[in-house]
Design a protein that fits this description.
binds tryptophanyl-5'AMP, mainly alpha, ligase, aa-tRNA-synth_Ic, Rossmann fold, Tyrosyl-Transfer RNA Synthetase, three-stranded parallel sheet, 5 strands, 329 residues
Length: 329
Amino acid sequence: MAKKVLSGIQPSGSLTIGNYIGAIKNYVKLQHENECYFMVVDLHAITVPQEPTALREQSESVAALYIAAGIDPAKANVFMQSHVPQHAELGWLMTTLTNMGELERMTQFKDKSSGKESVGAGLFVYPSLMAADVLLYNADLVPVGEDQKQHLELTRDLAGRFNHRFGEFFTIPEPFIPEVGARIMSLDDGTKKMSKSSPNAGSYIALLDPPDVISKKFSRATTDSGSEIKYDTVNKPEISNLMSIYAEFAGMTLQQVADQYEGQRYGGFKKDLAGVVVATLEPLQQKYHEIRSSGTITDILAEGAEKARFLAAETLAGVKERMGFLPFR
Ligand code: TYM
């Protein structure tokens, strides 16, 4: 049976192959059999300061990357979070159901706020808004990378809490996390997640990096002093990470990658790795530039938001009624 699927990516930097493997690849897979809602979460992006011109450019860029990566707007609703005002409204309602302690435990908040002199309140209540994103569509499945698992657990708790207090209403969503590639690591440090907001561009491969830059970044990627191409995340986190990337881009299992490169050197493996990544990203980039210059993204986003609003309005009305808000008329 068709399930409802929802997910989103922040327009807060250039998307990386981590976002692609952890999230977008699964969006593309899930769109065929399910009712899908894929957003660009601009309301989340502003939980850290964004320069307005950059935010606008990044927002359109992420939407175009969705399409270039294979999301078909005829099958899935692609839209901007801020074009569906119900997100902000349900976000507030969810904030009032969330406990401070729950938000204080969020590792993403701890990471993003640690050592900062001033931290915006939006960054703290961000998980309540994310819960609203998912619950607004009564999503069954949420394709995300490993780092979003904790936020999704909170979403499930909040849905359960609402149902308990106000009567059965929300679907309890399930995370959809890939087995390989749920946490692609940084190229300069195998213990850190690859992140689009890293100040070191050499630590990630952006989906829009030119082929020569991709080759250079992989050739400079940190590796251990050994020589065996073996999947062992404890003792060889960097090589294991590169093997995961290879497997995901080549459509192979980790075992097949290990067998293929048994007894070979890191240098040759890294060169081949760049090759398989470029083989996917080059056509994606070409499609991306076509979409950007065609100007069709505005229409795609308008259509996606219109469909999303319809369902979002229905859910929000149900929530408000159950919570005891006086109807408008
Ligand atoms: P964001 O924008 O940080 O990341 C978008 C998606 O990419 C995944 N991801 C990764 N996967 C594997 N390896 C990595 N190195 C890597 N880096 C990022 C993330 O897990 C995510 O799936 N809070 C979310 C956005 C959001 C959302 C939602 C997601 C807002 N509302 C509702 C799902 C449902 C975030 O900041 O993702």
